[in-house]
Amino acid sequence: MAVEFPEVDFPVVRWGGEADWHAPAAPGKWSDCARDWLLDPASLTAKLKARTTQFAVQLLGQHQVPLLADERRWLGHQQSGVVREVILWCDHKPWIFARSVFPMQALAQQQLRLDDLGNKPLGEHLFKQPDLTRSAVEVSSFTSESKVGQLHQQLGFRPATLWGRRSCFTAAGQQVLVAEVFIGASPLAQEQNHV
Predict the structure, then answer these.
(1) What are the CA-CA distances from residue 137 to residues 15, 25, 66 (Å)?
(2) How far apart are CA 98 and CA 75, in angstroms?
(3) 162-171 and 174-182 as β-strands: parallel, antiparallel, unpaired?
(4) pTM of the predicted model, to two decimals?
(5) H or E segment and range at residue 118
(6) Cα 9 from chain centroid?
(7) Tell me: the pLDDT tens digits for 17-52?
(8) How far apart are CA 56 and CA 9, in angstroms?
(9) How confident is the model at residue 1 (pLDDT cuts 50, 70, 90)?
(10) In angstroms, how far is CA 106 from the centroid of its own chain?
(11) Which has the closest alpha carbon to 164: 63, 85, 59?
(12) Is the CATH number of domain 31-193 2.60.40.2150?
């Protein structure tokens, strides 16, 4: 049975002033759930598929837009780039909001094939690249008033502080900055509902 996706405006997020990306605190300060989801270096898509029976990608949009200052520093200080936003659905419930940013020239890189991903998961695609490297993970919390906090509520969930992570992947000479925020029915968002 196919998931019926709700209408969501693109782009959802303009992190400006909403995100405080930073290195994670000492692992001992995190709950087991937070460590498990925020600090795991493996493919998030593979992890989601292993823990659920139904997995789907809702593509909200993939277009060239102006980049935010904290995104530009990762991508050579370009003023604009391609932004791809998706919601990852597990067992017909939203678990992850992901925002990926990469330079326009990455679309022309045949090895990456970023121009025809459609509703296929970007993370799974990146982890198949033979020359993939990944930066250290940064984390940020998001209030219920943030754009992603509002999306979480639009999808039918109670207001909560949400957590996300991001890192920069490099493959085929191109950089792809991927941010993933745990929303909706994800175990980390549900843990935050009870804090």
Answers:
(1) 17, 11, 23
(2) 18
(3) antiparallel
(4) 0.93
(5) none
(6) 16
(7) 678 899 997 766 788 999 999 999 899 999 999 999
(8) 18
(9) very low
(10) 18
(11) 85
(12) no
